Amino acid sequence: MRKWALSCALLLVLLLTTLPDPAKKLQVNAEESSDEVGDFPKVEEKLGAVPHGLSTDSEVVQRESESISRKTLRNSAEKFEFQAEVSRLISNASDALDKIRFLTLTDKEALGEGDTAKLEIQIKLDKENKILSIRDRGVGMTKEDLIKNLGTIAKSGTSAFVEKMQTGGDLNLIGQFGVGFYSVYLVADYVEVVSKHNDDKQYVWESKADGSFAISEDTWNEPLGRGTEIKLHLRDEAKEYLEEGKLKDLVKKYSEFINFPIYLWATKEVDVEVPADEEESSEEEESTTERTEEEETEDDEEKKPKTKTVKETTTEWELLNDMKAVWLRSPKEVTEEEYAKFYHSLAKDFGDDKPMTWSHFSAEGDVEFKALLFVPPKAPHDLYESYYNANKSNLKLYVRRVFISDEFDDLLPKYLSFLMGIVDSDTLPLNVSREMLQQHSSLKTIKKKLIRKALDMIRKLAEEDPDEYSNKEKTDDEKSAMEEKKGQYAKFWNEFGKSVKLGIIEDATNRNRLAKLLRFESSKSDGKLVSLDEYISRMKSGQKDIFYLTGSSKEQLEKSPFLEQLTKKNYEVIYFTDPVDEYLMQYLMDYEDKKFQNVSKEGLKLGKDSKLKDLKESFKELTDWWKKALDTEGIDSVKISNRLHNTPCVVVTSKYGWSSNMEKIMQAQTLSDASKQAYMRGKRVLEINPRHPIIKELRDKVAQDSDSEGLKQTARLVYQTALMESGFNLPDPKDFASSIYRSVQKSLDLSPDAAVEEEEEVEEPEVDEKESGKAEEPEHEQYDKDEL
């Protein structure tokens, strides 16, 4: 009755209003549709009682009118673990407290006084009304902030959240809240966000799971002073989150290392002294009748009221996180489990995956700071998508335990932006702006030490992996411990290997350190990753260069004609199959005094060939003739090759020109410059195999009749085939196809002048459109307009 009475009252107000108000109409509709998700009088009363608030329009409500079923919500809650969202809300509260503490550095009055100045997080449980509340005394939100941060969320609706989760969408927070805030609707029918900012009045944002929401000035809740309180009106199936034990476990598991105290309004039993009952007192008196007068006199002097101890239940604020900040403790005092918990709290990642490794250290001297760096278990899905456009930082900067910012991009270079952690400096000044702090000279020193420690951490991860280094000299206990880290560096390389390569390109100072971290497959690695040090350790005697080949895949490279002599002579060749490898090798010119040699380019040296001089003389007529025959193909020269065994010829590029793989990469660029491509392409050289029967036969034919057009066409076809096999794109595919068809005709003993059979043309009688219009018109089923 109360529900319908309230709805009727609101409807009456709408009728009496001279100007129609769609926002009020929304409130009525929201109440009438509330049966889809359950009955909760308090929800209806509050949404309906805010007629002058800012609310969703009718289109939004219509778009989200179909509520998600309880079964879907329950399954989603189990799948995506709402408990992690509770921890996110606590983490958001911590961020808000960090912000107000930072503001007080320049404005002492911003903190306020009394309870408002207490920087803490409070959690309350209301079992009777099924409400879970999380409150902070942080910076708070203005009305505009509530609209910006939460209005968009409500408009998208709960179904959008489920879709985001199912498609692996980004759940990063937006402002104080974000897409992750959707998951509160997995367990809550109704959400209130009460917030007070120093520069605005206290407002309340409220929303049901159907997509409707309202924002209005708060006149019924307790004044916050400053900060934000989130009230989740939980569903019946989520009542476990109203148990103190459950909340304590969640905070212990996910939020133990939050930098501010977290209090729970908890019940506890205490011993209390109360007056004893009269019957108990009389029994005691009877038991003492035989005492002497002297004893009675002594007892009278010390006589006190009779009491007893009983258990009473009281409520008080209980501190849930009393751990000291991890980075301030000695590394010897922190367990692996504590590091893992702290990482999850820092990264807002509440899965089961532990960080791959971490580095906990302190720096002393002119610049003093403590730092804790983590390598995440997985790379963010967008790590390289906007690498050069977005300024991303996963490091939080503290100055003397005061959070300053997580947007200092100068603390680590871009290629190490995947690292997460904390830097706490005792040297940097507190009372300066963020912009001035970024220009502080101490930041350069901090950055230099952070880079070195980060690279040492990654190098150590490789050294501790038994797949990377031999453990023959290790003890049994050491071998057992290392087995747990088996395959860790391969996992790191698969996730973050591209970052190491980008570091070699961008960071000339640390290029050699980064090169030691490189991993790749090779012609001798049997599918395993090897390092440059490992490659050098098994180089052949007399080998001066590090051989490598670039391409689109390992399978393609294994079949490359450029490897024929190298494989036959037992040389190892590195396979580079990542597009960034082409750019990498433009910067990595040498390693440990060994030059890099692309085996598809000029300059390959495989020892001295005593017959080479005689072969050049023997094939001089052919190479000169072939060079003239390919005048229009852009070939610089034709030479005898020392790299081929089974293939008649290949096309190589000049030492400083683009390889065939690089040409393809550049041609695929949307905004590539054709004129620059022609310049960077460099010279092309046709190298022929003097021992191959096709080449020997061509030499003999040229000696007999060098003017033969058929011979020139054959030479051009052999060149085009070599060009394609060497990885280049054909400049004229039509010409190549025509040459192939001519060769097929010749092999089938067909005349070159054989014509294509003409198709017989059958004339169809003309039909007058006017006469045939009705007959040709297709039949359509007739539908009633109303049925459609």
From TrEMBL:
Molecular functions per Gene Ontology: ATP binding; ATP hydrolysis activity; ATP-dependent protein folding chaperone; unfolded protein binding
Localization (cell): Endoplasmic reticulum lumen
Protein's name according to its UniProt entry: Endoplasmin homolog
SUPFAM superfamilies: ATPase domain of HSP90 chaperone/DNA topoisomerase II/histidine kinase, HSP90 C-terminal domain, Ribosomal protein S5 domain 2-like
Cellular component terms per the entry's GO annotation: endoplasmic reticulum lumen
Stated family: Belongs to the heat shock protein 90 family.
Matches recorded under InterPro entries: HATPase_C_sf, HATPase_dom, HSP90_C, Hsp90_fam, Hsp90_N, Ribosomal_Su5_D2-typ_SF
TM region positions: none
Classification via CDD domains: HATPase_Hsp90-like
Signal peptide stretch: 1-20
Keywords for the protein's UniProt record, in alphabetical order: ATP-binding, Calcium, Chaperone, Endoplasmic reticulum, Glycoprotein, Nucleotide-binding, Signal
Region (Disordered): 274-311, 747-788
Ranges of residues in domain Histidine kinase/HSP90-like ATPase: 81-238
Start-end of Basic and acidic residues biased regions: 770-788
Binding site for ATP: 92, 136, 141, 149, 155-157, 176-181, 228, 434
Biased composition range(s): Acidic residues: 274-301, 755-769
Keyword set includes Calcium: yes
